[in-house]
Amino acid sequence: MATEFRLPELGENIAAGDVLKVLVSVGETVSRDQAVLELETEKATIEVPAPVSGTVKSIHVKEGEKLKVGGLILTIEEGAGMKAEAAHEAPKAKEPVAPLPKAEKIPARQDVKEKVPEARVAPPVPPPAAAMTATAPAPRAKDEPLGPRVAAPATPSVRRLARELGVEVDDVTGSGPGGRISEEDVKAYVKAMLTRPAAAQPGVAPAVLPLPDFSRWGEIERQSMRSVRRKTAEHLSHAWATIPHVTHHDKADITELEQLRKQHEARVEAAGGKLTMSAIAVKVVAAALKVFPQFASSVDLGREEIIYKKYAHIGVAVDTDRGLLVPVIRDADKKSILELSVELARLAERARNRKTTLEEMEGGVFTISNLGGIGGTHFSPIVNWPEVAILGISRGRMEPAFINGLFQPRLMLPLSLSYDHRVIDGADAARFLRWVVQAFEQPVLLSLER
Q1: What contacts 246, CB < 8 A, 6 or more positions away?
Q2: What pTM was estimated for this model as a whole?
Q3: Percent of the chain whose pLDDT exceeds 70
Q4: How many CB atoms lie within 10 A of CB 75?
Q5: Which stretch of 7-16, 284-293, 323-332, 409-418 has the lowest confidence by average pLDDT?
């Protein structure tokens, strides 16, 4: 019996991907769950497994093509040249990993340990007075229950269109059976929003202006955006449009820390990691989030709430040939710098080799971006929505510092903290970054042991 194998659902809000590599050929025998396709989605590279065992009769995709959910991949003749499905060998269980000992917290210095003021949120924007059409429902009433919202019935392609147009698909009223939302419903909703006065359109993406014909002035070449680059552009456009960004700058004297790093880098390399400033920053930030919990929060304006996360999953931006990826280190506060260095090296290598999974890219509460290996004095990183803060690290350089009546050469590390001003005030940001700076300047607190 011939079976048509189509691309299954890959995860929430993932509607398509780019075909990187077809792993089988016509006439080849495949087993159920054998990888037959490498697909690059907006978040990660995924190996797509065969749903049945059999012989590949035909291949319907090519490398470089865009494949949507539901798109035809292969036709497989079930059972041809294969043993019975019941004889399919179950995967071997992984050996249990021994738990690691608990980590020590990095204590705050007495001279910087202050009471963190309660986070303040800007007053909500009042709803527009203009009446909504049938496809653009009125805003949620004040007395409406704040329980979990039921996901709107919509296909992945409709959800993608809504994201591209800058609207929440759950805000659109569907005209189909059972309230199913169509592309026409989304377009009608956006049209209704755009016909309102400009001041009454918060969160709606601005119209895209047409580009001139650049070929009038010389030769050009067009290349399609890869999935990672396309997702990065979409994600950062949303973050920039919705988050009121402010960036605070400071410098840390890491002269002693650099000596300690060089002293222990061989030990870390022997364990399979690399003792970098990023790994040390992960440890410092994880400890700082316990002192300043608002920096591990998210804003829910729909419910007029701030969500505080009581875990320290730290994302670290990795530069790859496909664009910027941000794998996440889980429970960074419970791991030593040695363990963080090994895990960060592993995640960075997986990202550059297209092996990062969707789970490894999700759940972060704070992001670190280190450009020190490239150069620069300072920069203003964009907050990784729905997070509320991101730490940028630039290249350290020797500078004269006036100490005890004398100028001395000191290695200074530029730090840049961008934050969401709806949750974090300037004084909070200054205190947070000062705490981070003083942790960097006290290497005795940054033991390789937990």
Answers
A1: 418, 419, 421, 426, 429
A2: 0.57
A3: 78
A4: 17
A5: 7-16
Q: Is 235 part of the annotated catalytic residue set?
A: no
Q: Which of 344, 360, 329 is nearest to 45 (CA)?
A: 360
Nearest-angstrom CA–CA distance, 322 and 63: 16
Domains of the chain, with CATH numbers? 2-85 (2.40.50.100), 129-142+151-196 (4.10.320.10), 246-445 (3.30.559.10)
CA distances from residue 135 to 157, 179, 193, 202 in whole angstroms, order as listed: 18, 11, 10, 18
* pLDDT above 50: residue 323: yes
What's the first-to-final CA gap in the chain, in angstroms?
Answer: 58
**43 near 384, Cβ under 8 Å?**
no
Could you say which of 60, 88, 245, 421 is catalytic? Answer: 421
**For residue 427, pLDDT beyond 80:** yes
**Structure token digits, residue 213:** 């014909």
Q: Helix, strand or coil for residue 157?
A: helix
| DSSP state letter for 90 | P
pLDDT at 14: 73
For residues 305 and 116, give the distance between their C-alpha atoms in angstroms, rounded to a whole number: 19
Mean pLDDT of the chain, nearest integer: 79
